[in-house]
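Severity: low
Component: inverse-folding endpoint
Summary: output formatting inconsistent between runs
Steps to reproduce: submit the following structure tokens with default settings.
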């Protein structure tokens, strides 16, 4: 029954959900209309805010391109291929593929949200080897598994609260940093982690499609040229580029010594970085690690270059869609629409209901500002000021707990509604959708039931579960 319902949602999304780029264009117009109706912004104010916001995600967009390309390059290496072949000796059914990819995605995303590219590469490789896997559903499993990042080491809002001299402290909203023991190590967050690993995996198993007919990876390949049997391996392509006579250039292009030197330098820097900074796993250091690992796994500059060209061939969606989402973000920020929404919603909150309304606000604003840190910068100060007013008369420790709960609630809401919009699917599709005609509409319908299940779970936990 549940799997049938999941198929109905999928049919609805395939019929009605446009391409992710069209989704961004429509959302631009919707947010612009709300800015007129709610904050009475003029046409030119909206236009200026839209253009100003267009460039807010340039650095982030480039980081996403490199994260996808370097992560997928590792997946194209002979070493990774051999490990997947060994894994397939133990995984030989679709249900095992769904379970392993979902659990793996949850675990690596808790280390850092960008590591979902590793789960995407694993899913693509398994689907290429094991028959009967419903590929759009497997992509949904991978995308859903990225939700656990909000509970882990790269959760942006708890990390911000624990950052010295952050903008909340400078604005006088909080007096001192709030330790991650109050947020990430709280009973609430630990329970959420367990819920993803257990409940989240069970939900995906329960709603798995009964049939994969016409929906396996091979059915979505654009042409037979994308079949791995008809494409030269990276080693074969590198070999074909050699001159018919001995040449210094060929020796340099295929030199493992050069790779070892660069790997050594990268390894030394990375080790020193973690000694100095602790386990600060930000996007830049992740990309750097992927880069040097990819280099040594391909064993020559030429092979790595070929792998990078192949892995970068499907990132165009990130390059041209991120600026449009950033434009939406600009309208929310520079017209004051985001702040206005947060004030309106928290104005109806009470001591008992503020976590739920914070959660709801985080989910709603996420459609327009699909960045945890960016969204919190817009709505966080207003929410936390309102929480302090709601908790007036309570002692300092109780106020800190209220701020921590409200902040986690925003973070959970922001992450959950990713299941209803395709922004971060752009991080998964360049790997899992490479060489196929799969679109967001083929995937998003499978995420409705997980969204409903975790919306109910979150609503209860953030309201009643003690920190």
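Observed output (run 2 of 3):
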């Amino acid at each position: 029954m549940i799997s049938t319902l999941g198929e109905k949602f999928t049919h609805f999304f395939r019929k009605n959900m446009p391409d992710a780029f069209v989704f961004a264009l429509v959302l631009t117009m919707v947010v612009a209309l709300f800015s007129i109706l709610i904050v009475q912004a003029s046409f030119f104010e909206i236009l200026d805010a839209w253009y100003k916001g267009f460039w807010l995600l340039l650095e982030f967009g480039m980081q996403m391109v490199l994260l996808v390309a370097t992560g997928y390059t590792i997946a194209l290496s002979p070493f990774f291929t051999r490990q997947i072949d060994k894994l397939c000796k133990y995984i030989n059914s679709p249900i095992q593929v769904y379970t392993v990819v979902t659990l793996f995605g949850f675990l690596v995303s808790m280390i850092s949200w960008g590591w979902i590219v590793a789960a995407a590469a694993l899913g693509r490789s398994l689907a290429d080897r094991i028959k009967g896997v419903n590929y759009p559903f497997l992509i949904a499993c991978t995308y859903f598994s990225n939700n656990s990042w909000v509970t882990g080491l790269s959760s942006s809002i708890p990390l911000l609260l624990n950052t010295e001299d952050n903008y909340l402290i400078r604005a006088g909203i909080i007096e001192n940093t709030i330790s991650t023991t109050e947020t990430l190590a709280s009973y609430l967050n630990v329970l959420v982690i367990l819920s993803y690993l257990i409940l989240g995996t069970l939900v995906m198993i329960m709603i798995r499609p009964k049939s994969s007919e016409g929906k396996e990876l091979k059915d979505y390949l654009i042409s037979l040229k994308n079949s791995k049997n008809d494409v030269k391996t990276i080693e074969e392509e590198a070999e074909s580029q050699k001159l018919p006579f001995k040449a210094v250039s060929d020796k340099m292009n295929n030199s493992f010594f050069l790779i070892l030197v660069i790997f050594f330098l990268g390894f030394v820097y990375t080790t020193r970085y973690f000694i100095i900074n602790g386990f600060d796993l930000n996007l830049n250091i992740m990309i750097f690690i992927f880069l040097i690992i990819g280099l040594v796994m391909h064993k020559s500059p030429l092979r790595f270059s070929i792998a990078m060209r192949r892995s970068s061939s499907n990132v165009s969606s990130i390059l041209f869609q991120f600026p449009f989402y950033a434009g939406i973000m600009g309208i929310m920020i520079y017209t004051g629409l985001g702040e206005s929404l947060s004030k309106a919603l928290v104005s109806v909150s009470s001591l008992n209901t503020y976590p739920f309304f914070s959660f709801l606000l985080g989910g709603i604003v996420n459609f327009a500002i699909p960045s945890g840190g960016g969204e919190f910068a817009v709505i966080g100060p207003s929410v936390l000021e309102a929480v302090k007013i709601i908790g007036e008369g309570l002692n300092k420790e109780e106020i800190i707990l209220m701020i921590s709960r409200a902040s986690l609630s925003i973070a959970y809401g922001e992450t959950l509604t990713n299941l209803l919009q395709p922004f971060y699917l752009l991080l998964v599709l360049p790997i899992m959708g490479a060489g196929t005609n799969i679109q967001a509409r083929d995937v998003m319908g499978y995420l409705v039931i997980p969204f409903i299940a975790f919306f109910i779970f979150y609503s209860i936990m953030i309201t009643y579960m003690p920190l």
